[in-house]
Predict the 3D structure of the following.
Amino acid sequence: MTPRRRRALMVLACLALMAGASALVLNAFRSNLVFFFSPTQVVRSEAPQGRNFRVGGLVEAGSVAREPGGLTLRFVVTDGAHRVPVTYTGLLPDLFQEGKGVVAQGRLNAEGLFRADTVLAKHDENYMPPEAAAALKAAKGSAQ
């Protein structure tokens, strides 16, 4: 084998390795990507089935119910136009309360119940995640 042919094979082998590594990185990135959806988008079936995503809006007043003797909590996230029931087991952020902004990450089951793995609450009175604020604004505009 000539040196020129050996060099060409090495270049091709390196390119193949780089392509394989890039494919693995992109696949891992795609599987860990979590998108945000408003309750309106969830009700319209725009949210993915069988994949994690985030739903955000306001915790509906009067919807928070804690199961006795446990850490399981049920509440409703709304954007003013539609509602999504959420269940979460675990400790909630201190700022979680009715009428305030919340973002929950988890999966939607076949019955339309969102099972959250993580619940995030806003950190002060003036802040709401940009995605949640835009979704609330869009929902109010479409409800009028």
Notes: The radius of gyration is 22 Å. The chain is about 35% helix and 30% strand. Residues 36-143 form a domain with the OB fold (Dihydrolipoamide Acetyltransferase, E2P) fold (CATH 2.40.50.140).
